[in-house]
Every structure is written in C-alpha cells, then in structure tokens.
C-alpha cells in the first residue's frame, strides 16, 4: 500500500483565473475557446463530462477586445422572439458601443460550451469587466 498523499483536494477546488485582455495578444475566438476549456474544467486531471468541475474566470479590460479582419464592421448577431417579423440583427461594432466587449466575449464563450444543463451554471462563473477594477481581487491566487 502506498503511503503517498496526493493533491486530490487541490484538483477539486475551484480556483480563480484572471485574464487581462489589454495585454493578451489572442483574438476573440482563441481567447473564448481557452476560457471555455477553463470553465468546463478540461485542464484538470479529474475532468468528467457529467460533473461540473471548472474554475472561475475573471476577464478585465474587455473594451480592448481584439478581433481579426473586418469582423467589427461585418459580423452580425441575430436575436428572434419567435414572433413573426421579430428578427433583429446588430453588428459587433454597435454591440461593443451599446453593451461593451464583455457581452461579445460572453456570447463567444457561450457558443463554445456544450449545449446541456451545465452551460448556464458554467457561464455564471465567467465574470467580465470593462475596466481594470473588479471585486474579486481577494479570490485570485498570487503566483
């Protein structure tokens, strides 16, 4: 019998990750896929698709969101209320001006998470802020 005491408890704890978009060179899609992996917990050795073992992600400076090409002018977001004639479309540029970069990042991450009952719970652990200030400083680990 082994006498080794593992770090299983550390794997099960939910840690907090800080992502500063002003210094991150990744574009929207690559950043959103990495955030989705962290929210699902796929980076942990105890990952199981049926359990929610992901971490918290705090994104600051969302107004500095980086996209490639002419996506700011040409990409459109659609919404529909299932009523006839209620299809609405808005460009990424207008959405950035109206709701900020956090909403664009949230929609990108939401599209990359699995479409199941855990998606809304995982999205609740994503915290987006337009500026550098956020109320979760005490939760972040100093590394």
Automatic annotation (TrEMBL):
Keywords: Mitochondrion, Ribonucleoprotein, Ribosomal protein. SUPFAM superfamilies: Ribosomal protein L13. One of its GO terms (molecular function) is structural constituent of ribosome. PANTHER family: LARGE RIBOSOMAL SUBUNIT PROTEIN UL13M, RIBOSOMAL PROTEIN L13. It is found in: Mitochondrion. Component of the mitochondrial ribosome (mitoribosome), a dedicated translation machinery responsible for the synthesis of mitochondrial genome-encoded proteins, including at least some of the essential transmembrane subunits of the mitochondrial respiratory chain. The mitoribosomes are attached to the mitochondrial inner membrane and translation products are cotranslationally integrated into the membrane. One of its GO terms (cellular component) is mitochondrial large ribosomal subunit. It holds the Pfam family Ribosomal_L13. InterPro entries: Ribosomal_uL13, Ribosomal_uL13_bac-type, Ribosomal_uL13_sf. Signal peptide: none annotated. Belongs to the universal ribosomal protein uL13 family. This is Large ribosomal subunit protein uL13m.
């Amino acid at each position: 019998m082994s006498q080794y005491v593992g770090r299983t408890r550390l794997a099960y704890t939910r840690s907090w990750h800080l992502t500063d978009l002003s210094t991150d060179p990744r574009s929207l899609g690559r950043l959103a896929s990495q955030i989705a992996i962290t929210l699902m917990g796929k980076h942990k050795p105890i990952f199981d698709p049926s359990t929610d073992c992901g971490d918290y992600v705090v994104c600051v400076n969302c107004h500095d969101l980086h996209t490639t090409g002419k996506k700011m002018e040409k990409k459109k977001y659609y919404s529909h209320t299932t009523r006839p004639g209620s299809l609405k479309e808005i460009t990424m540029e207008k959405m950035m001006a109206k709701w900020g970069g956090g909403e664009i990042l949230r929609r990108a991450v939401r599209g990359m998470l699995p479409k199941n009952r855990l998606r809304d719970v995982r999205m609740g652990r994503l915290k987006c802020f337009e500026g550098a200030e956020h109320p979760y400083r005490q939760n972040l680990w100093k590394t």
